[in-house]
Design goal:
The protein is an alpha/beta fold. The protein contains 5 helices and 6 strands, in the order βαβαβαβααββ. It has one domain (10-162): 3-Layer(aba) Sandwich (Rossmann fold), CATH 3.40.50.
C-alpha cells in the first residue's frame, strides 16, 4: 500500500453514523441509520461546518447508511459541495480507500465509509502509534478524523477528531 502525498493536503475520514439492525431478509447494504444515527449524523455534520471543515469533494459508499450520513454533511455544507457515490467503498480494503483519496487532484476530500476500513485508512495515514494514542477505543460511529499533510515531517498528521 502506498500512502498518498499531497495533493490533497487535507483528508476527512467519516465513519457512517449508527445503523439500524437488519430486518429479516434485508441485506446489510440496505440498512439505514437508526434514530440515534440520524441525529448523530446531523450533529457531526454541523460541528464540522461550524469549525470550517469543508471538503471540496465528498465521496461516499453507496450503502444506505453511508448515503444517509453523506446527506447530512451535504445539508450542513451547502449545495456547492460535490458528492460522489462509489460502490467500491462498500466491503473495500484499505488500499481501495487510500487509492480513491490519492486519485483526487488538488481537492480536500471526505470519505464516508465503513469500519474497520475507515480506521485502517486513518492508521495507514498517521501510523499505528498515533492511531492508538488518538483513538484507544477505536473509530466510533459518526466519528470524523481531520488529517493534514505536515510538510516538515513529510507525513500525515491527525489535527482533529470530532465525535458527537
Amino acid at each position: 500500500m502506498t500512502v498518498p502525498l499531497p495533493p490533497p493536503n487535507r483528508i476527512y475520514l467519516l465513519r457512517h453514523a449508527e445503523a439500524a439492525w437488519a430486518e429479516p431478509g434485508q441485506r446489510d447494504f440496505d440498512r439505514p441509520l437508526n434514530e440515534k444515527g440520524y441525529g448523530d449524523a446531523e450533529v457531526i455534520a454541523d460541528k464540522a461546518a461550524d469549525k470550517g471543515y469543508r471538503p471540496d469533494l465528498l465521496i461516499s459508499s453507496t450503502a444506505l447508511r453511508c448515503r444517509d450520513t453523506a446527506d447530512a454533511v451535504h445539508r450542513a455544507m451547502g449545495v456547492a459541495l460535490d458528492v460522489s457515490y462509489i460502490d467500491a467503498l462498500y466491503n473495500a480494503t484499505v488500499d481501495t480507500y487510500v487509492e480513491i483519496v490519492d486519485a483526487q487532484d488538488n481537492a480536500a476530500v471526505m470519505l464516508v465509509g465503513h469500519n474497520p476500513t475507515i480506521e485502517q485508512a486513518l492508521e495507514a495515514l498517521i501510523g499505528h502509534e498515533a492511531m492508538v494514542n488518538a483513538l484507544p477505543a477505536g473509530f466510533p460511529t459518526a466519528g470524523l478524523a481531520v488529517v493534514d499533510f505536515d510538510v516538515s515531517a513529510s507525513g500525515w498528521r491527525l489535527i482533529d477528531f470530532l465525535v458527537v
